[in-house]
Design goal:
mainly alpha, 8 helices, 65% helix, 101 residues
Length: 101
């Protein structure tokens, strides 16, 4: 199970992120790429590197079964943070286009 899976199932909260990060950093065995360990798609991870607030929107998008940029676009009219993140998602348009969800 990944961080995102655990948050979606209620086994973890967004506040537990550091615990998962520490577990990956301290693991003696290879746990794979950090974004995979967390359960983030590459463009979600790239956005997180720039703006950590994106995690709450990632979780909301997964719960709704929609792509993150689509959620951000809809939410941007009422939520300034979503608007900023939607603009940020445009930097990763090629990566989003390559993902078939």
């Amino acid at each position: 199970m990944t961080f995102v899976d655990d948050v979606l199932s209620g086994r973890a909260t967004l506040d537990d992120f550091d615990t998962y990060s520490d577990a990956w950093n301290e693991a003696e065995e290879d746990l794979g790429e950090f974004h995979d360990f967390l359960g983030l798609l590459w463009p979600e991870y790239a956005m997180w590197v720039e703006e950590h607030d994106v995690l709450e929107y990632v979780i909301e998008a997964r719960r709704r079964g929609v792509r993150l940029p689509d959620l951000l676009q809809v939410r941007s009219a009422e939520d300034p943070t979503a608007g900023e993140l939607y603009r940020l998602s445009g930097r990763y348009a090629k990566q989003w286009a390559a993902i078939q969800e």
